[in-house]
């Protein structure tokens, strides 16, 4: 009887440890997310399932073209691409991204598949000053984010710049559906 009790206790202990580790990993390191909508086409598709790296920005700064998940509201998280970094001025003119007055290529548009999104469409002209908040440069600890599908995206053009405190993490791994399993580069 003592041997059975010991086995049962070992199983309970193992399960508690497993649940504790899963809780720690999901809370502090990685969490899944499902893409909701077409705002990141052609890079991400509606219903793609991804892993969010929650600790990268605890040790590193955000980088241009990172794909991030952030709290848009208490009930909704968005996935968008970092376009502008703290201290920078961002503008779009004639479908060209300008950072501090210099044109910047957007390499993620190079391999667009016509069957997914025939044309990312023009990004309507704007300057940082015209966005909510009317900033002259992006404030410290904030980023400017845009969806890749610029004609169908709620992003910094409507929300203003995003505080790093709102950012859950960065994501680059699609794990479902299997035929789309891949790591997304910049």
Automatic annotation (TrEMBL):
Q: Where in the cell is it found?
A: Cell membrane; Membrane
Q: Where are the transmembrane segments?
A: 12-35
> Do you know which CDD domains this protein is assigned to?
S26_SPase_I
SUPFAM superfamilies cross-referenced by the UniProt entry:
LexA/Signal peptidase
Enumerate the spans annotated as Peptidase S26 domain: 9-176
Any one of the GO CC terms:
plasma membrane
Q: What EC numbers are recorded for this enzyme?
A: 3.4.21.89
- Name one process (GO BP) from the record: signal peptide processing
Task: Give the source's domain of life in one word.
Answer: Bacteria
Q: Heme: is it a keyword of this entry?
A: no
Topology in the lipid bilayer? Single-pass type II membrane protein
Instruction: Write down the chemical reaction(s) this protein catalyses.
Output: Cleavage of hydrophobic, N-terminal signal or leader sequences from secreted and periplasmic proteins
For this UniProt entry, what is the primary localization, expressed as one broad class?
membrane
Which keywords does this Swiss-Prot/TrEMBL entry list? Hydrolase, Membrane, Protease, Transmembrane, Transmembrane helix
User: Keyword Transferase, does the record have it?
Assistant: no
Where are the active-site residues found?
39, 80
A GO term, aspect molecular function: signal peptidase activity
Can you tell me which family this protein belongs to? Answer: Belongs to the peptidase S26 family.
Q: What is the name of this protein?
A: Signal peptidase I
Native organism: Oceanobacillus limi
């Amino acid at each position: 009887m003592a041997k059975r009790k010991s086995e049962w206790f070992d199983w309970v202990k193992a399960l508690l440890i497993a649940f504790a580790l899963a809780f720690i990993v999901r809370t502090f390191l990685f969490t899944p997310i499902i893409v909701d909508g077409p705002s990141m086409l052609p890079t991400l598709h509606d219903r793609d399932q991804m892993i969010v790296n929650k600790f990268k920005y605890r040790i590193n700064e955000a980088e241009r073209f990172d794909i991030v998940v952030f709290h848009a509201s208490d009930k909704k998280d968005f996935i968008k691409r970092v376009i502008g970094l703290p201290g920078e001025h961002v503008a779009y003119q004639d479908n060209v991204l300008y950072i501090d007055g210099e044109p910047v290529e957007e390499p993620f548009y190079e391999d667009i598949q016509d069957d997914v999104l025939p044309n990312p469409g023009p990004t309507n002209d704007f300057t940082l000053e015209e966005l909510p908040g009317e900033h002259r440069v992006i404030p410290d600890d904030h980023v400017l984010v845009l969806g890749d599908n610029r004609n169908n995206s709620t992003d910094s053009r409507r929300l203003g710049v995003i505080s790093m405190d709102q950012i859950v993490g960065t994501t680059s791994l699609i794990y479902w559906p299997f035929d789309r399993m891949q790591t997304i580069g910049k």
